[in-house]
Write a structure and sequence with these properties.
mainly alpha; 2 domains; 3 strands; elongated; 316 residues
Length: 316
Amino acid sequence: MTFVPVTGPAMLHAAHSPREGTVEFTDAGGRMITLPIRAALPVLAKARTVEDAHPSVLLLAAASLLFVAIDIRTTPESPVMKWGFALLTAYTGVVGAFLYVLGCREPLPGLHEQYVAARWRQALGSTMHCVAGDGVGILAGAVLATTLGITGLAEVALEYVLGFAFGWTIFQALFMRDMAGGSYLAALKSTFLSELLSMNLLMAGMIPTVMILRRHVPTADNPTTAQFWFVMSMGLLVGFIIAYPMNWWLVANKLKHGMMTVRPAHAHADAGASHDHMSHMSMAMDEGRPLRPSLPVMTLLSFLALAAGLALGRLA
């Protein structure tokens, strides 16, 4: 046998005698091999049917993204958070739209400040911001790794580096530099640790999810298939859940921002309050206030979680 058919169609060529029939296999690269029916049976016994996602799934995801993209335009939230919810919905479909309505959408005019003030919504916004920004780099890394034939720990490292780089330098420091006094360098410095801790927990959940699903979902390592994007979507969703407690701690200690309210100056008599709310969510911790648990402890825990995620992904 010149190659082993892993994926692709199989065609039966019947003969007068069933034992004399043959099966023609074609792999994804277009190579073909014809096997006698006896030799083909062990291969066929392990075969599984690969089906594309049902059109209704894609329609629901598209409708969710369209709803968020249109509706969020009237939500008095900061532009970067609006982009974040749009990206999260692009990653997770109806789940992202549900989180937008649950955590950010203004229930009634003038109530956004009170609505997003709850700590759990602040943490939700912080986690969403992390997943949205880091997710761009992670997905780019996954596609690039597949294209270049990079697998295993090297793929994980590529996704981590690109995800962290985009999330930290663009979504955190660049887009939120006004919260650091307008200085990009100051924003880089003040957001590094918060981005690092959140990224570690995101990857701790995503790595084992993607590795496990790829072992059971055919063609999940091919970016041209719906299965690939489904697996990556599930990975980001699990990463979101695992990163949520860390973002709760970061927001509680004012190391990371959560939801915000941004209104035009003429739209509200109390417009100054919204600006006070933005400055209140500064990414610099209060001076003299001890962190519980301490920052070194939480940093160590984040790397332990990342190592556990790597181990689980390789052992499962």
